[in-house]
Write a structure and sequence with these properties.
The chain is mostly helical. The protein has one domain. It is 78% helix and 0% strand. The chain contains two helices and no strands. The longest helix is centred in the C-terminal third of the chain and has 41 residues. The relative contact order is 0.15.
């Protein structure tokens, strides 16, 4: 295990941008995909052979999108905690 702790200005800026992307447009886009997928998975909105194929795959796709969203939120949280720990270890808290 390394004894070095470092959170450069560049790293802190990257963390802020990372968190902004995850908290904002990325999660919003995943939520939008789920909403539109729900509309398309309803045969009263969209039907036909290929639409049925989409509909049969939608539950798995939806679960994967939810999992990605949850994973990104967890990663965002961990990045914040790690940086806080590094800043405390370096006496910058």
């Amino acid at each position: 295990m390394a004894d070095r702790v470092l959170s450069s200005g560049e790293a802190r800026s990257a963390i802020q941008r990372f968190q902004s992307i995850v908290n904002g447009p990325l999660l919003d886009q995943i939520n939008a995909l789920n909403r539109e997928g729900q509309v398309l998975s309803d045969p009263s909105n969209w039907d036909g052979r290929l639409a049925q194929e989409f509909r049969s795959n939608w539950p798995t796709t939806n679960q994967q999108l939810v999992k990605v969203k949850d994973s990104l939120e967890e990663l965002r949280r961990k990045v914040a905690v790690i940086n806080q720990d590094i800043m405390r270890a370096g006496g910058n808290a």
